[in-house]
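Consider the tokenized backbone below.
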């Protein structure tokens, strides 16, 4: 991961062969980024997505292997137990320009990946909302 910081924004490049979520977790931990939003584009292979069914609280998983354009990568950085928590959703396009989208579990970069992270001061923690949604929601 290479980066340049301009003001409160980090311009981040994730290299070919690196996995997005683990790379960003390490990066945010090393730079002490605890709160912010992220958006990016790039190219990836070996992608795992999940879809959450709000009624049944069940996750559907999908693994994709091949050549995909990262048409849109977006989400936020908060903390769980004080550690950076990367929450990203992604839309990827296949060679026929068909897209898949979902909650990003993992994706390995095949070409380049350019992410801009806008940081904010302070922290926002998440907690597991067992009662209503079953999700890690924002503690506001
Ligand atoms: Fe999600």
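A designed sequence for it:
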């Amino acid at each position: 991961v290479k980066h340049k910081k301009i003001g409160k924004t980090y311009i981040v490049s994730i290299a070919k062969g690196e996995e997005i979520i683990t790379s960003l977790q390490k990066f945010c931990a090393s730079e002490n980024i605890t709160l912010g939003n992220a958006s990016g584009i790039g190219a990836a292979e070996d992608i795992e997505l999940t879809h959450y069914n709000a009624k049944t609280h069940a996750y559907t998983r999908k693994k994709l292997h091949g050549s995909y354009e990262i048409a849109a990568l977006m989400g936020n950085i908060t903390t769980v137990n004080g550690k950076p928590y990367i929450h990203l959703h992604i839309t990827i396009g296949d060679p026929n320009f068909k897209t898949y989208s979902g909650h990003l579990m993992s994706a390995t970069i095949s070409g380049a990946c350019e992410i801009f992270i806008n940081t904010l001061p302070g922290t926002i923690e998440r907690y597991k909302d067992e009662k209503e949604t079953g999700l890690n929601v924002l503690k506001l």
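The radius of gyration is 15 Å.
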